C-alpha cells in the first residue's frame, strides 16, 4: 500500500485548504494517507544569522523533510495570502530547502488551492507550479477550487462539475504513484 503525505499550506485551525486536502485524500484509493498540520512543525523565522547561531536547522524542519522523503506521494493544498504562500508555509519551506535543496525528492504531487474568491488560489498555484519543480517536485496534477463557501459543504465538494475535475486530477495522481 502506498503512503502519501498531505497537508494544507496554512496554520489556521479552521483552514479551508485543510478541509479540501482531507476530502481529497479520502478519494485516493489503495493508499495510506497521513494528514499533517503545519502547527506541529513550528520553526523560528528563517534568517541566515539565526541559522548560524543555531548551528544548523530546526528539528521540526528535519521532521517534515523526513516525512516527505519516506512518502510515495504528496498532496498539498496551498492557502493564499496576498497572492502568495502563507508566511508559515514559506518559512518552513525556506528552512527545509537549507537542509535539502531538492525538498520534494521527485515524489508525485497533487497540488491544489482553494479560496473564498472566484480565482480559487490561482496566484499561489502559479507560483508553486513554477517553483516546486526546481525543488524536485513532480507535479502530476493540479486543482483549484473557487468560491469555497459556495462549492464545499459538509466535508465535500457539492458542485458536480468541480468535483469531477478533482476526480480527474486524483486519477492522474494515483496513476503516477
TrEMBL record:
One of its GO terms (cellular component) is cytosol. Residues 4-141 form the NADPH-dependent FMN reductase-like domain. Pfam families: FMN_red. SUPFAM superfamilies: Flavoproteins (SSF52218). GO terms for molecular function: FMN binding; oxidoreductase activity. PANTHER family: CHROMATE REDUCTASE (PTHR30543), NAD(P)H-DEPENDENT FMN REDUCTASE LOT6 (PTHR30543:SF21). This is NADPH-dependent FMN reductase. It comes from Hanstruepera neustonica.
